[in-house]
Amino acid sequence: MQGSEWPNSNKGGERYEENLHKRRGLSYADKSERVEYYYIHSEVDSLKGKLTIVQLLILTLFISCAFPFSTQAAIPKKHEIPDYFADHFDKTIINDKWNVIEGPWFIDSGKLTVSKGAGYKAIANQTSVQDVTVETDISLADHNGDAGVLFRVNGAVPGVDHVKGYYAGVSANGSGSVFLGRMDNNFTELKRTAVTIEPKTSYQVKVIAVGSKIQVYLNGDLVLEQTDSTYKDGRIGIRSYNSEPFFDNVKASVPDGSSLFQDQFDNAPNQAIHSWNIVNGSWQLSSGSLRVNKDENNKIVAKDKVFDDMTLEVNLKIPDDKEKGDAGLLFGLKKVYPGDAKANGFYAAIGEDGNVTLNEWKHNKRLVLQSTKVFDRIEANKPYHLKVVTSKNTIKVYVNDTVTPVIEYSDKGRALNVKGGVGLQADQAEVSFDNFIASAYVVQERTYKQPVSNKKPLIETPFTPLPLGSVQAKGWLLEQLELQRDGATGHAEDFYGELGTNAAWLGGSAPESDWERPVYYLKGLVPLAYTLNDKELIATSQKWINAILASQRKDGSFGPESNDDWWPRMVALYAMKDYYEASGDKRVLPFMTNYFKYQAANLPAQPLKDWGKIRVGDNIDTVLWLYNRTNEAFLLKLTDTLAGQAYPIADIFSKNEFQDFGSDFQPIHSVNVNEAIKMPSIYYQRSHSKSDRKAFNAGVKNLDNHNQITGMTSGTEMLAGTSSTQGVELCAITERMQSNEEAAMILGDPQIGDDLEKITFNSLPGAMDKEIKNHQYYSLPNQVESNHADHGFKQNYSNGMMPSPTSGYPCCRFNMHMGWPYFVKNMWAASADGGIGVIAYGPSQVSVKLKKADITIKESTNYPFEDKIKFNINTSRTVKFPLKLRIPAWSVQPSITVNGEPVKGIKAGEYVSIDRKWQSGDKVVLQVPMKLKTTTWINNSIGIERGPLVYSLKMKENWQVKDKPIAPVPGFDASALGFNEYTVKADNSWNYGLLIDREDPEKSIDVVTGPMPKNPFKQATTPVKLVAKGKKIPTWGKSPNNVEAAEPPVGPIFSKEPTENITLVPYGAQNLRITYFPEVTEKLTDTGAAKYEAEKAELSHASVRTNEPNASDGSYVGGMDFADSQVNFNSVNVPKTGKYNVDIWFANGLDPSTGKIIVNGETHVLKYQNTRNWGRFMATKLEVPLKKGTNTITFMKDEGFYELDYIVVRPQQ
């Protein structure tokens, strides 16, 4: 304690109270007969004559001075759990909750008051606490003096300023103020804010003290904030100085800031066990764990910690397996006594006999509420993860599996009072505990929330994001979220050490856990939890949120001290902003403000680098989000600093400068590209620059040389050209989805929404199994086998194409979780003209407050598996606002009706605004007819699309377990649940070409629809299939690694093979697929599409390399090292004049290069992306004009070097 004034002659208030009762002639044991006294501080020598009531009171005062109360617990051997303190003064006399230090305090009409005096005070009979929230209602009789709350009081005796602790309150002097001061037998003012305080008016004063941070609120608004670490704990009280105050509703509780308690027990052995009270047993730190001897009911409880709805987690090991004892978690503790079988609360335990039990300590007896046999027996020295989640009237117990509880207990006959302290117990077992975490959480009721749009000088954007939780998924879309909850996301903490209880972002030290991986996961976990409003997921996410909030240091920095990189904090801030939108937790805004102040102060000396330098748009995004809520000008300057330290991102995308940075791979890294593409749009809100505004769409166009049919850019991991067997990284998919979601709102371009749907409905499900348990790091347009192989990728990863919880590099397994939840969150947006609009379609429901009306719109549809979308509107009152519907560019004769009446002027590729008065019961129907279309890809191959869905050859997939990367633990076998590494092979022929009319594919393809299943991405039950005509191409087989398909042969290919009906299914309904089909024909026609081998061209100062298995026909041209080196294709024949695409297969080693391409005398310069190695080829394309007849195309070196395999000339579609 800080110079405590509690005398040492008496050990605690209980001893004093016992002595006082003896002096009063009362039996201490009979507390029911206590008499309430008023304590009056008065001058003794002013009392004359016979003994009066006043003299008795004075005598009492001297007794109180002789035996002041102490902060120690009431019974030294009994551990009181600090609980909720409240006094509403609804009795006629002051009850035993208070010790009056001085002043004639009394209750008048349900309020506590005292006459004017210097420093009158009363202290609550409450256990000393560290972090605390204190609040009360105060009114002052006139403009004199002040009154308020005392907290962290370490001593108080009669005398004006004789208090050691803090004092915060209101003053009516002058026009009024709110103040905070520190007292140490004198008063030191820490901060004061002028606020109008009127006499005889009630004000709610609330103080939140967490660590060294002290916040003072008036009527719910934060008015003072100060850091002071003089007093770390103590009691609470009330004080009046020269005023006549009226107090009501004095309350104290553990604040939100104490909603996390964790201990990795990593202090040195034999050190004190801080933050814990040992009840009984020999507890000691040993080798990074907390150990206890074998004895009966050994207990240890956390100091000053109270939780209501909570998650508790701990790892425990039992050295022997004698099947006698048990160990586990204590919670809901009211009192804990030393010795055997004496406690009040709950106890979840793992027994050495393999039983898991939920027990209740009640009336000093241990009652078994539920027991289940989980293990045959406990394995000695094997770690077991025990977790408890409480939720109102339900207790769930988990062991080694955080998704499926082994015990789920509720009692319909009574309310389970789980609020209380937490701790550990071991009964007849020597136990080692590690990584204890207790975290409180609150499930918010869904409410109608007002969108927060840009504040000046930020530009007004066409759309504004809605707060998290405003949009709920329905139908098949809800099924995806629930599969994710029960699959990859729900089990993530069971699988990955980076997410365990020893994670650095939770305060621990697990390897690889102090950078991006945990916060990637959290970024997806938070929106999934709150979109589903799932209690267990919210509880899980709260643990991470609380840990991040608690990690903030005095300078504003936060997160693991072992890694000061700016980048992972950018990710964490997305999770924090989303959490704030869903929960309204008041800790978040000051947390982010303090961090951004730290960032602004430190960026000059510690500038952005590497990942943060290219992904800085994420940082700017959250800074602008905070500005719109706090209006603090320094935040705008911070965005300028961040943009100034970034790569020239707008130029990179607008001017196709991706590979202009030499050996610096950041601008060509595919995840960076798909993440950074939104940065200029985000910063445009601040810069108002046309170049920033145009950069997104310019970038989309410049990325066309890496584009795939799903709308994604290839990248393995670097940008990888147009090949049918180059992959797309799952991280890139989820990042591009977010980029499109945000850019669509900022720019208002409906095409960006079209592209978003295409990526979401194809690439995302196509990269996961259909239970959302296993993912593929890379997924390909043409993928006929998933197996270990040298795939020829820039970043190879042997298992990168295999469905697995550990596929590829460990980033996607963490970053994938935001895909579906972010899509749902951003499907709807508020419009700048006070309405609401659709960014992307799907079964959903949006609830929002517009123009002071509560509005709910239910979107009923099976889209994109059907073309009709119905909107049912409910409003709290009739209200006029525009409803903006995006009309997809691919739709044919779209239509809209409102209550059956057609809306005119509907055009594909635009937004339609329906501005009218709406009332409950209004119905809108949007019809977007889908027509089959073909698109042309590498080697003149054909893709089939219908609406936003891409279709692929139906494959008979043979899944076999290759490995079990998640080791089984007792009671939880991940492999048995389907979390495995799989080889997937095609048990059917896949080498088909399509017999098709490219201009009118519906002539040869039938659309077959069926009933809508819960999960439309299961191949067997997908509701839309296509039946096409095809022929096998016997010469089309696998590539040299015998895993990937060879590139599709250049069509049209004349074939006499029999025509077959072949089935196509949605791209996302399979993990194997053929999506780029060669065209076959039964007629010999010249379409202008032809393949030209480089080694057969006319060469000058270049050489042919033979016996090369990775080259077409086994040969290619190299040695193009000289200024006059040439590869001349002198006989390129086309049937008509027009624009053609030239697919170019090249290799250039580790460095990018440029080449001169001379077409009929006209020079073009083409940038070549660096490939994996020489002789490992990648495809790009060049658009050129050709004339009817014979043309000449010459390839020469420009900057750097490259090799040439072959080219394909094909007409533009």
UniProtKB/TrEMBL annotation:
Pfam families (UniProt xref): 3keto-disac_hyd, Beta-AFase-like_GH127_cat, CBM_35, Glyco_hydro127M
GO molecular function: carbohydrate binding; hydrolase activity
A biological process term (GO) from this entry: carbohydrate metabolic process
Domain CBM6: 1090-1210
Protein name from the UniProt record: CBM6 domain-containing protein
